[in-house]
Predict the structure.
Amino acid sequence: MIKYIITTIFALVFSFNTFANTSWDDILNAKKAPQNWLTHHGSLDGHRFSGLDDINKKNVKKLKVAWTAMIGGIEGGGIWDHAGLEGTPIVEDGFMYVTDGWGSVYKFDATKNGKLVWKMNPDTDHDFPGAVTCCGINNRGVALIDNKVVSHTLDGRLIVTNKDSGEIEQEVQLADASIAEVITAAPLVVKNSAITGVAGAEYGIRGWLHSTNLADGSKNWRTYTIPAPDEPGGDTWKQGPEAHSKDAWMHGGGSTWVVGSYDPDLDVIYWGVGNPGPDWDNEYRPGDNLYSNSVLALDADSGKIKWYFQYTPNDPYDFDGVNEQTLVDAKIFGKKTKAVLHADRNGFAYALDRESGKFLWGTPFVKKLDWTAGLDKYTGRPLDYDPNKDVQRYVPSSSAFRAQPEATSCPGNMGGKNWPPTAYDPDRNMYYIPVIESCAMHVNVPQEKEWVAREFWLGGGPKMGPQITGSVTAMDVNSGKVVAKYDMDYPQLGGLVATKGGLVFSSHPDGTIVALDSDNLKELWAFETNTGVNAPPITFEAGGKQYVAILAGLGGAWPKWFVGSTPGLEKVQPGQTLYVFGL
Amino acid sequence: MKINIILKVLFLVLMYNNAYSQPPKFDYGLSTYKKGNCMGCHKWHGDGGPGYGGAALSLRETGLDKEQLITIIECGRPGTNMPFFDKKAYVDDRCFGMKFSDFEGDDKNRPLQAKSFLNKRQIEAVVDFIINDLQGQKVSKDYCLKFFGKPTRSCEGL
């Protein structure tokens, strides 16, 4: 009888929640409702940590497929012969929201084995943006607020969809594909606004972050990541040998294609900024090239930059600093600190004081790093950075420049680590990093030709070098030391989630999904999807039962540009499946 | 009234002719160009230039003849990002008299394998496509429409 009453109460509560709006309070308190996966990183601090522990070290071996769903949108467009799946599913009250590469949103009922509730197809232009997206046809997911599902499309729109009906309520054109601006990142909802990042540095865009008022679609603010000459930081873009390089800042890159994090106490948004352009010709753009390869701390209401920290000034390597920012209140060197963590393409993981931007520690998380001898322990600047020079060489044998057009660096241009997200376990104070263990060659081709819209703006390119492998690496946040590695034959191209059950879920790009022990990264469970996995796993609860979900479908830049350095990955076929596992 | 009907019929005939006078023609060479990911580096327009695949040569400006193009596609260009598409390349000595064992320990020059192999028929078709549609020609609207298979904003302004 008691069981019957509890079940009835649960059903009533659940049924009530089905129709509930997503309030800002719900988002702020996402960790208190671990049955949901309410924001891109699970919570606004970017932890990708779930408080669920029904699936744990003791029973994870019994994990099996609960249900699957086929996702559409695999067709190609532009220069791409297929689209990929890189999205993070969002779950609220048993309903799951997933995107495909072309920005269609699918709402599944996870309590009914994934029955499709609705699909919203935004009718994305395939060929025009598809011809200029550097790194695949991708869309990394949605955000929820009120009765809205907020998403992006590759052709540059912000779409607001009614959560119940799946009908589009609002569309706002934000990015301009005629100058190669495209959008692949998920939006970040802060209060009643959606924050949008843009991609396109490889085509010489001037990067930005844009805040849209979700009430009426109007602009709250747009902050450019590359300052104009009369703005602070504008003097870090000097003229190079070519006359047209006096306007280098106008095509300076600084994309923002990975979603940021938000600290409600400080009312600050933290967002990584990508590489400067042209990528491989830093002689074209003497100076530190702010705010490329930096983290920006921005006032949420005005978009004003409060502070910045630059990881790789005057970058000659394509060490895109766009990766996610993880906000932790943790012991660092034994002292409780409000910090922001970041694992960069340049191979270093960083901890900064997130109130001031002060450098706390920086440690290599890759096995081999040779482009600089280390980081200055006070400033965090690369030790081989020369403040008296406008054009940086770092370790000269590692960087390509006009007098030395080829060179090899470790890590290579893909990192280190690329966009696939890290996870942070607050119980263990442990930072888990999906790693690309790589070296790659760089080729400098002087950027003598003026910028042309929709033409690559690279000043060279990468060249395949030695075979690239990968790992999942665990780092102790207190000390900034690597404490464990799970070695992989291929780079980790999907991202991670950590759980209170003592597990880290991860994937191999040739199709294996694995569960690792949070304490030592030993593999405890594996499942073979036999397609590429380029998306992060999440965990949630539906009908009182914990599940793990992940999209499987070959995507990203790797299949097109980098298979030459990962023999065997060329055999991986595109896919389009949502996997959900349960005990 | 009669004139009106005649005009309407004439209009429909013209529309029909316009729509169907040049039906899209399947080009095995173009299809192979896409399948082989040639466009990844040489671009959809074939003019090459810098890219994530490296600085690819222009197939519109290339002076290579048919036999030379076939050799480069079959064997790639060791030391560059141009991969080999022949399954047997460097397994036996058909490519420049060299085998994989000749490149051991030489990461800089080792031949790179293509994403997918092409057979002899496919390689010849893609070479014919390069010679007939790219070599010595400027990018045109007709070519753009042929590549994308339908009108797209990418072809505007050509």
Notes: The two ends of chain A are 26 Å apart (CA to CA). Residues 378 and 555 of chain A are 39 Å apart (CA to CA). Chain A has a mean pLDDT of 95. The interface with chain B takes residues 78-79, 81, 125, 127-128, 131, 134-135, 177-178, 202, 408, 441, 443, 445, 455-456, 458-466, 557, 559-561, 563-564, 567, 570 of chain A (CB under 8 Å).
